[in-house]
Amino acid sequence: MVAESFLPQINGVANTARHVADRLLARGHELLIIAAGPGPDTYGGIPVLRARSFGVPGYKEFPVGLPDPSIERAMAEFKPDLVHLASPFIIGAYGLRSARKLGLPTVAIFQTDIAGFARQYPWFAAADRGIWRWVRRVHSRADRTLAPSSASVQQLVQGGVPNVHLWGRGVNLDLFDPKHRDENWRREISPDGRPIVGYVGRLAAEKKVRRLAELSDLNCKVVIVGDGPDRASLENSLPNATFLGMRRGADLASIFAGLDVFVHTGEHETFCQTIQEAQASGVATVGPAAGGPLDLIQPGTNGLLFEPGRPGSLHHAVKALLDHPMARARMAAAGLERVQTRTWPAVVDDLVDRHYADVLRDAAAVRRVA
User: Domain spanning 2-170+343-369: which CATH class is it, in words?
Assistant: First the structure.
């Protein structure tokens, strides 16, 4: 596995890579992880080769790996059956080049809309087309690309990337569960009993957290969980919200379960894992009608969607849930039911038994012909 991000970083790419590694190990596979940035040189007994890296302005906590000859050497020594590329961009692209040179089949995971994120930052905005061309080039050279949502599959196919398949994400149902709802925490956050509306995620430009200002005149308490470069400015622009900082594990699960409505404001999510975590926690969800949330939220059934380009649409969606507690409870129950088959073991088993198997079979057929 060549991972653009891995523990100790906390983000969607690292989280998915960790769950894939856990399941591969549980199934008896041998694994070598090659990852960007500093960190431990083992994970659960799996060796981790740490590539050289640098920090990007505004994202310094997410190191960007650099091409390193040690990647190809390690790959050649390990002699894998297949190379898994976790959100390939720089070291992932180098890992792909090395795999092709060594004649190894590859599966590339498209997870981050880097071009969409770049447009949110003035110093990167002009580079978005070049970034997309690079992403298309990398994924076009992999034997199979897996995208997490219908929208991202369509984006890649329309962009000319061949052999794209849908592969979603799992959710930890042992951690995220309605039973973790803590009434004491709810009274502490909202002493007057107002409904609690929460956001969980990075506090950065691409997440559009400032849209939560639309909720200022609603009878609710807004809670924001996470950290990032925009935190200070958001605290100024959302003075009535409660900022809880970064939370993890059981603490985060308790916060999720304690919400009445979960809101995600970002427009460039290829999946949006926090919506699944909210659904697993028994909470009604609101997300943008764009990207990954289109697959996760069926409007009126298990949540509501708002129009990213229409001011006030987030306000109306949240107000509808707050004004109708019975409908909100029904949607929360439907969301909880939706995720019951989306466990990480089930999702990774699909990766191995279907996608890995297909790529390995095709590679073996090519070798026979050669």
Answer: alpha beta
As a whole number of angstroms, the distance between CA 50 and CA 42 comes to: 10
Pairing of strands 221-225, 59-65: unpaired
Query: Can you give the three-state secondary structure of 4-67, one letter per residue?
Result: CCCCCCCCHHHHHHHHHHHHHHHCCCCCCEEEECCCCCEECCEEEEEECEEEECCEEEEEEECC
Domain boundaries, the chain: 2-170+343-369, 178-341
- 310-322 burial string, b = 16+ CB within 10 Å, else e? eeebbbebbbebb
For the stretch 82-123, pLDDT in tens is 999 999 999 999 999 999 999 999 999 998 766 555 555 555
The domain defined by 178-341 folds into Rossmann fold (3.40.50)
- Euclidean distance between CA atoms 176 and 109, whole angstroms: 25
Would you say the CATH fold of 178-341 matches that of 2-170+343-369? yes
pTM, full prediction: 0.91
pLDDT score, position 58: 56
Cα–Cα distance list, 297 to 294, 301, 316 (Å) = 6, 8, 16
CA distances (Å), origin 331, targets 151, 218, 296: 23, 20, 12
Q: Residue 230: helix, strand or coil by DSSP?
A: coil
pLDDT over threshold 80, residue 130: no
- Cβ-contact 211, 237 below 8 angstroms: no
